[in-house]
Amino acid sequence: MKILLVEDDEFIGESIKEYFELQGNKVDYFNSPTKALEVIYPNKYDIFLIDINMPEMNGYEFYEELKNYAKDIPVIFITAYSDINHMEKAFNLGAADYIKKPFDLKELELRTKRLVFKNTNIVKITDNYYFDLNKLKLFYKDKEVELSQNEKYFLELLVKNRGQVVDLNTLKDYVWDGKNICDNTIRTRVKKLRAKLKENFIKNVRGSGYKIEKE
């Protein structure tokens, strides 16, 4: 998963970031909503985790800005408020979930995975290959294929977009955090990944990007 986290309490924010990254996820953490808005575009995220009570602008206002960019991405509001009015406002804005402080990080993980993966955490690629979106692991006949972290993110993105071409700019942004790498670097990495596979299910669409065909 790629997560956008905005939380002005740095202890809480760093704790959430560390916890999710230890599970193999990517977390962009900001303690300032205005700074987040300055740099997040055009990153693509699987879920937003947003504190409500923040300086500069509150979580509701921040989410209104985000909806102009990615209205279909689920959001979980994080808050110390316990009254029903704040919960009602969050859900009226389109929140997918709402969690009250203090909370167990495992609970936040479970709520996040429920929204991102729903019932599609295991994705069949071919008769022999499947990809576990929860753990970012590829399996061949129930045996795990050893992958680098970049290879895991690469396959995650292609699996989530099966049947569609994922363009090179999106790959650079998601897999390499928008670093200024050349197209040849991507081709070289894909070649190394294919060398680990017994079936070539990664299709190159010349001049556009890569895709995995739907079954």
Give a written overview of the molecule.
The chain is an alpha/beta fold. The protein has two domains: 2-117, Response regulator (Rossmann fold, 3-Layer(aba) Sandwich), CATH 3.40.50.2300; 122-211, Orthogonal Bundle (Arc Repressor Mutant, subunit A). Helices cover 40% and strands 21% of the residues. The chain has eight helices and twelve strands. The chain has helices spanning 10-22, 33-39, 59-67, 84-93, 105-117, 149-160, 168-175, 183-195, and strands spanning 2-6, 26-30, 47-51, 75-79, 97-100, 122-124, 129-132, 137-140, 143-145, 166-167, 203-205, 209-211. The strands form three sheets. It has a five-stranded parallel beta sheet with strand order 2-1-3-4-5, with helices on both faces. Strands 6-7-8-9 form a four-stranded antiparallel beta sheet, covered by helices on one side. The protein is elongated, with a radius of gyration of 18 Å. The model has no long low-confidence stretch (mean pLDDT 88).
Short overview:
The protein has 215 residues and is an alpha/beta fold. It is 40% helix and 21% strand.
